[in-house]
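Q: Two folds, back to back.
A: First:
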Amino acid sequence: MKTTTLIASLILGLFLVTAVQAQYKVGDVVSDFSLKNVDNKNVSLAQYSAAKGFIVVFTCNTCPFAMKYESRVEELNKQFSSKGYPVIAISSNDAQAKPGDSFEEMKKKAKAEGFTFPYLYDESQTVAKQFGATNTPHVYVVSKESGKLVVKYIGAIDNNADDASKADKKYVADAINSLLEGKAPAVTATKAIGCGIKWKKA
């Protein structure tokens, strides 16, 4: 019995190590995923063959910080989608813990706000764990290099959640503008400010 328990513990330990390693850092290559959009069609990064990269935003309906940034996420998509960096928004919150973040509520939100970007449902929370996302919003800027998607920036959208007009550091926009100029972003990581993702209970 003790031997079985020890083996089980070792397997669990290896699983946890693997899970930690799966969390992306700047410079890591992103694996593609396929998630259901609010139009009931699955979306993957590979579908965007002409994209130069992506602004992947982990967000939700209910977090006050996510709501404060909704218009800024929309603006990022309008500003950079035509330049090759579309927004891909993902909600990974457990709907049991936050009914306001259910797929049906996501559909209502996207329609009411007129989102121009995909709003994907990460029901299994696999993609959030794959990326290492912890907050809403939590942004990953990825750029295509030799056919691979490489993480270039991780963190917050800017440095003022309360008032966009007073944000004097626009981390995501600055990172993408640098990439469009063929330069590495000056700032590659900041702390994501927002509500913690609501994880499913084991």
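A: Second:
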Amino acid sequence: MGEKKHRRPPSPAAEGFYTPFAALRQQLRARASSPSTSPAPPAAEVSPQDLALFLAEMADVTPLPADVRGRVAGQKRRHPALPPPRAEASALAELREVVSGQGPFVLQDTDEYTEGVAPGVDRRLAQRLHRGDYAIQAHLDLHGATAEEARAQVEQFLLDAYLRGKRCVLLIHGRGHNSKDHRPVLKEHVRTWLSRGRLSRLVLAFATAPPHNGGAGAVCVLLRRARRLPPR
């Protein structure tokens, strides 16, 4: 008697079996072998205004040196820190405002003279502005503008000057002789814009311009030094 040979079982496809996942298996293999062609998500655009304010916020920040050993995890706090007393918390908040330059400006204002300095800035800086010790690098004339128009112009002008690295600029607001009740309306608005809100983050000091630059009808502004972003 001859030896009985073992037959190889037929494949499902050859015998007409139902194979619902055969096509899916081929697609998965093809996708795994081909490189991905999906586009990367677009980077978020940053407006010049947001960039200027970010650079102003980071102007006094000193980056830490690179650690050649790599990133080291910080130590875990064993016990939760107790909140400081109210008096200490208030003092710490004021100190943070002084360090960040976001606290209230120190202002002096009369009919013929106006000055303001950021928190922690020596008042003699404003006095030097008034004497004309700093060269004017750019100026903006607000004559004929409404308060709303003037605010938009001042904001764009200061942001542009800051991004271009200019330090001392001149805002010509006029004396208000042609306004209602002969009040220097734009002068009051300019002082508020420079000492409060987002524009104040760009300003170190301001003072009434010297006579040869407009006197009581203009104000000299000393901007913070722009911080440059490191190259990518």
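Q: And?
A: The CA atoms of residues 68 and 148 lie 53 Å apart.
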